């Protein structure tokens, strides 16, 4: 059975492992200060939020998200990071996390939840095509070397 809830201090090591797996999937390694900053933000629960999926008490998936204003609607929720341990994929943890984020956002008056994924992420896209609508938008970026 999969349960979803907030992260606690006891989850830090398992969360770091999952977050590292997420970043490795996208070909990046985060500096320790960015990992620490993310954890601090999640702990505060003001700007960034995190939920974890558990199987038999073990943290097996994570979702990171935040709300922001919109010029065309009420606030929206951006699901920035979603990752599940490879050993539990296909067993409902990702779906449970998405549903929990949607419920969290709905309770706060958001009108939609949205996210991005790489077009090559076919495993995730199979799930996403079941739970959401692909609106056909592409993402463009301008890197700002700060």
UniProtKB/TrEMBL annotation:
Gene3D superfamilies reported in the protein's UniProt record: 3.40.630.30
MF terms in GO: acyltransferase activity, transferring groups other than amino-acyl groups
Residues in N-acetyltransferase domain copies: 2-146
Keyword Nucleotidyltransferase listed: no
Swiss-Prot/TrEMBL keywords: Acyltransferase, Transferase
CDD domains: NAT_SF (cd04301)
The protein, known as: GNAT family acetyltransferase
Organism, as annotated: Amycolatopsis rifamycinica
Classification of source organism: Bacteria, Bacillati, Actinomycetota, Actinomycetes, Pseudonocardiales
């Amino acid at each position: 059975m999969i349960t979803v809830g907030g992260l606690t201090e006891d989850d830090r090591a398992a969360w770091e492992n999952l977050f590292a797996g997420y970043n490795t999937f996208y070909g990046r390694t985060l500096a320790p200060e960015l990992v620490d900053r993310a954890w601090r933000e999640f702990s505060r629960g003001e700007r960034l939020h995190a939920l974890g999926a558990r199987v038999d008490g073990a943290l097996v998936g994570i979702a990171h998200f935040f709300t922001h204003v919109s010029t065309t609607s009420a606030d929206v929720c951006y699901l920035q990071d979603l990752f599940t341990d490879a050993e539990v994929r296909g067993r409902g943890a990702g779906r449970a996390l998405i549903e929990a984020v949607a419920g969290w956002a709905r309770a706060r008056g958001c009108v939609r939840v949205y996210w991005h994924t790489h077009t090559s992420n076919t495993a995730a896209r199979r799930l996403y095509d079941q739970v959401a609508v692909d609106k056909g938008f592409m993402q463009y970026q301008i890197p700002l070397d700060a």
